[in-house]
Amino acid sequence: MQVIKTAAKMKEASTHLKKSQKSVGYVPTMGYLHEGHLSLVEKAKRENDIVVMSIFVNPLQFGPGEDFDSYPRDVNRDIQLAEEAGVELLFLPSAAEMYRENHAVSVSVNGRTDVLCGRTRPGHFDGVATVLTKLFSIIAPDKAYFGMKDAQQVAVVDALIHDFFMDVELVASKTIREKDGLAKSSRNINLSPIERDQAPYIYQSLQAGAAMIEQGERDPKAVISAVLAHLEAAGGNVEYVECYSYPELKKQDVLSGKIIIAAAVKYSKARLIDNIVLTIS
Amino acid sequence: MQVIKTAAKMKEASTHLKKSQKSVGYVPTMGYLHEGHLSLVEKAKRENDIVVMSIFVNPLQFGPGEDFDSYPRDVNRDIQLAEEAGVELLFLPSAAEMYRENHAVSVSVNGRTDVLCGRTRPGHFDGVATVLTKLFSIIAPDKAYFGMKDAQQVAVVDALIHDFFMDVELVASKTIREKDGLAKSSRNINLSPIERDQAPYIYQSLQAGAAMIEQGERDPKAVISAVLAHLEAAGGNVEYVECYSYPELKKQDVLSGKIIIAAAVKYSKARLIDNIVLTIS
């Protein structure tokens, strides 16, 4: 595995890959790799000649008071895990290069962000879309891999690629979970032991909502109420439980088509999100 | 010359050109072509295998009350002029495709826009940067050609390309002028005969400022005052006369390095801009 630290070197490598007609699968991460990331690498390896991973804790997508400083980091462990997973090129850009002094241009996301995490994290998805625009440009992947745990992020990337006519295919993979159902997340490390025992109830609550829909419930309010009732067992502070069309993230009076039920819960040192996307046929 | 009207067809053509290793020079325009545009085509032809031109009066870069409706248009004449100039591919996208329903993502320009036209045209350069991000993505040019009459636009495109790590080389060409010095502009057609006689004084006034600098003046205020005094002969309403570093567009107390003197004058049905960029050695 080659570790690349500058955009110029990364661009050189991706230009070379394009010329050799190698297909490139790209897994963007913020590091502290877990099985969720590694399953994306696995999928990317199956579908492409070469897998590129980036690790960059993107300051632009953290708001004031959010956990940029306490976001878990362990680059040496990540390098080992990426290599073991079969990543060919690992890109570790610097913040100084991604956001050079006097940088003047950024991406604004004006749709799909007035709900869910977008409501409480203003600017978060602008930061995600800005850094991905840069990274896609440097890496020029054929396919980019994202986990569905961050379903709103997937919806935003879908809009980014379509609105900017980018030559990248978005691949969204199902959420990887612990045995007890808790969605794998780098932030899980920041849960206290008690919170770690409670957190699996987030997914169980969403499953209760999904089960109601499968049994015929079409009123999003009834579904949300049921999820909220179940969520009491999860402890923490419930930030939201919401239900929309997916990936448009539009409110529905009567549930239909592809929809998402999503929740966010704040614990003492970690804010966890999870969701279920299902299609009403 | 091939005329292409959809992004999919244009992308197909540009992918084909990339595969055939043809270099692509791109001239983005809003149409109503004049010698300024055609000189860009000429330059692009000298420096590339294939020249692509686009004509798109971009609604996103016109503010409320600006001249989107009265912006001059004559597509049939433009097609003939482009063909005569040797353009190989003419891209005429639709607003419906460039800004599809529920488009969610745009580019924000946060630097180089708090001065000159950016101050009085809020959102203008966001619109320019957004449409160029889309067009660059669809056309994938090696080089893109812009006229220096729109010097602030050139500065913004420079930032866009660098900040987003785009694979496009910006080529800025000198302003093409009428015999009397008036900068060629599609908007000149909207001047009354009297205004047309007065408008050349814009460039003469800027030249007076440049001459002062060449004779040793280093105080931007003195230069601006002199330009303003000369501008009285230009009629219209002077919107601004400003002087900055270029392309950073930063205020200087003592002029040095590469600098711009720029002016905007509003006539009854046209707002004209012009500038001189010079290097103090």
Fold and architecture overview:
The structure is a homodimer of 281-residue chains. Chain A has helices spanning 7-19, 35-47, 75-85, 95-98, 116-120, 124-139, 151-163, 193-198, 200-214, 220-231, and strands spanning 2-4, 24-29, 50-55, 89-91, 105-109, 143-147, 169-173, 237-245, 257-266, 271-280. The first copy, chain A, is an alpha/beta fold and 281 residues long. The first copy, chain A, has 2 domains: 2-173, Rossmann fold (3-Layer(aba) Sandwich), CATH 3.40.50.620; 186-276, Pantoate-beta-alanine ligase, C-terminal domain (Pantoate--beta-alanine Ligase, Chain: A,domain 2), CATH 3.30.1300. In chain A, the strands form 2 sheets. Chain A has a 6-stranded parallel sheet, sandwiched between helices. A 3-stranded antiparallel sheet of chain A has the order 8-9-10, covered by helices on one side. In chain A, strand 2, helix 2 and strand 3 (50-55) form a beta-alpha-beta unit. In chain A, helix 6 (124-139) packs across helix 7 (151-163) and helix 9 (200-214) runs antiparallel to helix 10. The first copy, chain A, is globular. At the A-B interface, strand 5, helix 6 and helix 7 of A face strand 5, helix 6 and helix 7 of B. Strand 5 (105-109) of chain A pairs antiparallel with strand 5 (105-109) of chain B, so a sheet runs across the interface. Chains A, B: Catalyzes the condensation of pantoate with beta-alanine in an ATP-dependent reaction via a pantoyl-adenylate intermediate. Chains A, B: It is found in: Cytoplasm. Chains A, B: ATP binds at residues 30-37, 147-150, 176, 184-187. Chains A, B: The active site is at residue 37. Chains A, B: Homodimer.
